[in-house]
Amino acid sequence: MRLWALRGLRTQRDLTGFPRTLELAPGMTPGRPVDGPAAAADVCPTGALRAEGAATVVALDHCVHCQRCRHGGQPMHWREDIAWSHGEGAPLPRAFAHSIHVRVLDAGDCGACLAELQQLPAPQYSLHRLGIFITASPREADVLLVVGPVTRAMRQPLLDTYAAMPGPKRVVAVGACAASGGVFGPSFACAGGVADMLPVDRVVPGCPPPPLAVLEALLAVMGRSLPRAEDAP
Ligand code: SF4
Ligand code: SF4
User: Fold this and answer.
1) pTM for the predicted model, two decimal places
2) Which ligand has an atom closest to residue 72 CA?
């Protein structure tokens, strides 16, 4: 075990090149629909696709990656990348460009979004090399990262956690449930997406999003530069 760890540190053989370069290894991402013919919208079970004239547009925050629209008779165009996140929020001030603390809050997730997040400190992704640290205390947190639809029981803890964080602070919603309430809400048990309660700076769609998509969003919140398609090895 000790030898393996030393060898891994010396060679960095299993470490992703992201964000220095794009990560294009197979299996890193399930990909996402980008556009396609109008008939493709009929197969979507979540309403993430909407026909507009002869084309179909994608509301990625509602997509659960069932891939029905990828393999149907009128397939959507599919892109295999991890640059999914979007948001209008400004990045943190420049002082946070090299290190942030992140408080992860499970507002009612099914377990899959959390399982993807748990990969981030592993040698493949090595979150800490980028100066990103998970903290249990909201008092130390610069970023609140929320997974899952906000259940009615977790609404107040979510608001309390955000209130306990010092400024400047940012909120990242991870997964279709946190982004929009997903297939669960709003309902008798679910209060809705995070944006219904808090100002969300960055959204990472996906069900669940792969670890690198979350990493990309955190780097965007830090104001770090990200690789472009032409940077591919
Ligand atoms: S992958 Fe599934 S949920 Fe996502 S847009 Fe296509 S059909 Fe809809
Ligand atoms: S987005 Fe998908 S994987 Fe994440 S909590 Fe919701 S159902 Fe689970």
Assistant:
1) 0.91
2) 1
Q: Residue 208 Cα, ligand 1 centroid: separation in angstroms?
A: 13
Query: Which residues form ligand 1's pocket by a CB distance below 6 Å?
Result: 33, 43-44, 46, 48-49, 58, 63-69
Asked if residue 169 belongs to a domain, the reply is yes
Answer yes or no: is 232 within a domain: no
Q: Is 161 helix (H, G, I), strand (E, B) or coil?
A: helix
Shared domain check, 205 and 130: yes
7 belongs to a structural domain: no
The upper half-sphere exposure of residue 92, i.e. CA atoms within 13 Å in the direction of its Cβ, equals 26
Among 42, 62, 63, name the best residue to mutate to test ligand 1's pocket (greatest count of ligand atoms within 8 A of Cβ): 63
pLDDT value at residue 63? 94
The string of pLDDT tens digits covering residues 88-103 is: 999 999 999 999 999 9
To test the pocket of ligand 1, the residue of 29, 34, 43, 49 to mutate (highest count of ligand atoms within 8 Å of its CB) is: 49
Look up tokens 């397939």; give the residue: 75
- Containing 8, the helix (H) or strand (E) segment is helix 2-11
Residues 164 and 210 in one domain: yes
